[in-house]
């Protein structure tokens, strides 16, 4: 799982152009939106595309995204449970 | 002789790999530096914390840097500062990037972060957010830098709305080159807001 969270952090930083961050700056449990990393709605769409492209997981219910994208850890848990 | 009602209070030019504020070089880098790296260096030199900068396309980044520099010189922009911009290639950089993504025959993907910049007006939105502007704005597409159009149009817009301030200019960005002149217009200053002056300051950046 740790390998997946590290991979996810690297992908998030690259995909979302978070140039001032490194993998080590991102805690597994830091909220990705709101007061945590401060991601916005466009970032959320990018994360949905990333799940599809990198892990073959399609998110069809936007309400589901709110829980899935809470932290790096919740994303990793969701990928582990759903990846094809 | 008529007394001009508006003046150019500050202006910024970005050409090739150099940036000048009011005619004085602020940053100059080697011509082999990529445009992306050059704009990133300019952002770092500004010494501000605005992570959204890194998500912007090249057009927005160049405009962001120029407006940031001018406000340091002239003070904060009033919230009704009009924005009257122009260029030749519109948002071509992002349009092309988006097209390459969606027409990729092996792995077609639409990136929301790219798509959101496929209009030049988005740059006006970005600086309106940054400087808390709630103002009139327009983005013209011309073949070339046209102060003959911009000056009377801007003047009419200012007079019509009884506004004191506007940011106007030319912001042409391609994959590797940047040809930008933005100027901040106000009620006072030493450089009159005229076609002749705008031709002069556009050409002074070697």
Can you identify the CATH superfamily of chain A?
ACP-like
CATH architecture of chain B: 3-Layer(aba) Sandwich
Unreliable segments of chain B (pLDDT under 50, ≥5 consecutive)?
Answer: none
**Mean pLDDT score of chain A, rounded?**
88
Number of helices of chain A: 4
H/E topology pattern of chain B: EEEHHEHHHEHEEEH
Task: Please compute the radius of gyration of chain B using only Cα atoms.
Answer: 17 Å
| Structural class determined from secondary elements of chain A | mainly alpha
In short:
Chain A is 56% helix and 0% strand. With 84 residues, chain A is mainly alpha-helical.
Describe this protein's structure:
- The complex is a heterodimer of chains A (84) and B (206).
- With 84 residues, chain A is mainly alpha-helical.
- Chain A is 56% helix and 0% strand.
- Chain A contains four helices and no strands.
- The radius of gyration of chain A is 12 Å and the shape is globular.
- The model of chain A has no long low-confidence stretch (mean pLDDT 88).
- Chain B is α+β, with helices and mostly antiparallel strands.
- Chain B has one domain (7-203): Thiolase/Chalcone synthase (Peroxisomal Thiolase, Chain A, domain 1, 3-Layer(aba) Sandwich), CATH 3.40.47.
- Chain B has helices at residues 35-46, 58-74, 92-102, 112-115, 121-131, 147-161, 195-203; strands at 7-15, 18-21, 24-28, 82-87, 137-141, 166-173, 178-186, 191-192.
- In chain B, strands 1, 2, 3, 4, 5, 6, 7 and 8 form an eight-stranded mixed beta sheet that branches.
- In chain B, helix 1 (35-46) packs parallel to helix 2 (58-74).
- Chain A binds chain B through residues 16-20, 38, 42-43, 45-46, 49, 53, and chain B through 40, 51, 54-55, 107, 109-113, 116.
- Chain A: It comes from Parapedobacter defluvii.
- Chain A: It holds the Pfam family PP-binding.
- Chain A: This is Acyl carrier protein.
């Amino acid at each position: 799982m740790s390998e997946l969270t590290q991979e996810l952090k690297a992908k998030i930083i690259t995909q979302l152009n978070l140039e001032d961050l490194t993998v080590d700056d991102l805690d597994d449990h830091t909220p990705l939106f709101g007061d945590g990393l401060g991601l916005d709605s466009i970032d959320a769409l990018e994360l949905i595309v990333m799940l599809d492209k990198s892990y073959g997981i399609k998110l069809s219910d936007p309400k589901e995204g709110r829980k899935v994208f809470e932290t790096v850890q919740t994303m990793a848990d969701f990928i582990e449970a759903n990846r094809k | 002789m008529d007394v001009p009602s508006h003046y150019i209070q500050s202006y910024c030019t970005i050409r090739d790999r150099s940036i000048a504020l009011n005619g004085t070089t602020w940053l100059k880098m080697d011509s082999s530096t990529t445009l992306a790296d050059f704009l990133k260096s300019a952002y770092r030199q500004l010494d501000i914390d605005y992570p959204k900068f890194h998500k912007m396309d090249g057009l927005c980044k160049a405009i962001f840097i120029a407006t940031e520099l001018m406000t340091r010189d002239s003070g904060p922009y009033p919230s009704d500062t009009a924005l009257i911009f122009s260029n030749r290639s519109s948002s071509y950089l992002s349009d092309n990037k988006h097209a390459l993504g969606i027409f990729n025959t092996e792995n077609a993907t639409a990136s929301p972060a790219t798509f959101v910049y496929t209009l030049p007006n988005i740059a006006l939105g970005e600086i309106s957010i940054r400087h808390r502007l709630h103002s009139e704005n327009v983005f013209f597409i011309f073949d070339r830098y046209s102060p003959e159009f911009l000056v009377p149009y801007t003047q009419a817009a200012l007079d019509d709305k009884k506004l004191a301030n506007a940011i106007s200019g030319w912001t042409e960005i391609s994959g590797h080159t940047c040809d930008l002149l933005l100027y901040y217009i106000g009620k006072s200053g030493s450089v009159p807001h005229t076609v002749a002056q705008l031709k002069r300051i556009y050409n002074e950046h070697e």
